[in-house]
Amino acid sequence: MKQVTLKAPGGLDNLTMAEVDAPAAPGPGEILVRVKASSLNYHDYRVCSLPGALPDGRIPMADGAGVVEAVGEGVSEFARGDAVVSCFFPEWQAGDERPFDFSTVPGDGRDGFAREQVVLPATWFTPAPKGWTHEEAATITTAGLTAWRALVVDGGLKAGDTVAVLGTGGVSIYALQLAKAMGARVIATSSSDAKLERLTALGADHVVNYRTTPEWGAEMRRLTGGRGVDLVVEVGGPGTLAQSIVAGRPGAHLALIGVLTGRSGEIPTALLMARQQRLQGLIVGSRTHQRDFVRALDAMKLRPVVDRSFPLDALAEAFRYEESGAHFGKICVSI
Ligand SMILES: NC(=O)c1ccc[n+]([C@@H]2O[C@H](COP(=O)([O-])OP(=O)(O)OC[C@H]3O[C@@H](n4cnc5c(N)ncnc54)[C@H](OP(=O)(O)O)[C@@H]3O)[C@@H](O)[C@H]2O)c1
Known about the structure:
Layout lengths: L1 E5 L8 E5 L10 E10 L2 H8 L15 E7 L11 E4 L30 E5 L3 E3 L6 H5 L1 H15 L7 E4 L4 H12 L3 E6 L2 H9 L4 E4 L6 H8 L5 E6 L6 H7 E9 L12 H6 L3 E4 L5 H13 L6 E6 L3 H10 L5 E5 L1
Helix pairs in contact: 3-4, 3-9, 6-7
The structure holds NADP nicotinamide-adenine-dinucleotide phosphate.
NADP nicotinamide-adenine-dinucleotide phosphate binds next to helix 1, helix 3, helix 4 and strand 9.
Pfam family, one: ADH_N
Protein name: NADPH:quinone reductase
GO molecular function, one term: oxidoreductase activity
């Protein structure tokens, strides 16, 4: 079978395709999955492009979707032919014991899904949303579940709320689609006027160019009649958080997800306190969150926005496309 590994010292030029032996038959509690697709996330890009971030020989990619080809003894949850999706934190099945690093995450602390077949515990997967392509399904592991957790699990989204989403990457577009599907209003930003048009076509109620309107927090307040937004899906980090606090209403929920503008910086803490806002960091979610999310998707009309798909042997090219920032929504890999 084919797989991609990252050779030392890392960097996109060292993603190497190889032919290796197929895995052994699944043991007790395991399933053999023919991986059909993965999707790119900023995290995968960071660890593959940053020299030394991954050990020699690591198989990248956190997201994996495919078909169960065989089940081991004692597996009752899945059967041959089922469409499944991998979990970001395979050992975080449920509850409040949250992982605090990436040591258990496929494609980072352990081998990921840039390969044709895997034999892994059945509990590392959930069913895929019904009727979705494998590429669509692969987008739920990281980007989709993060948006779901930010809005629903942590943010308590309800119809009529106003949600701010920043930029047009995978998490933000998912958040826009979910928020609209659940009856919320959405204010979306982008650095590109062409992408703003696409955001409007996707259902955004208002759009703001964050380059030409650097005080976009005040603009969001204006667009909400001075009230401010109820929820911010904060993917920017230090370079955007101050504006997100300005944009938020008193009591707003700010879901701190991303580091697109850097890893640390100044926060207007007095304003955060005065507005009595809740700033909640999060990393993806548990398997139970993913099951709930898939159940919700099965009840919604939503389908994720897949910008482009690349074959597995063009993984480096796919990351370079992500690096260019030209994409809108998810970039996928077909395997
Ligand atoms: N905590 C978690 O669980 C979790 C999970 C997934 C992702 N993340 C993080 O969330 C962030 C986004 O991830 P992703 O996979 O969605 O990335 P992505 O698909 O690569 O998104 C990139 C997009 O972000 C937008 N952007 C860049 N700088 C911006 C800024 N200053 N203000 C607003 N938007 C900006 C750009 O949109 P325009 O081209 O429209 O300007 C760009 O196209 C990353 O930091 C990632 O590590 C965290």
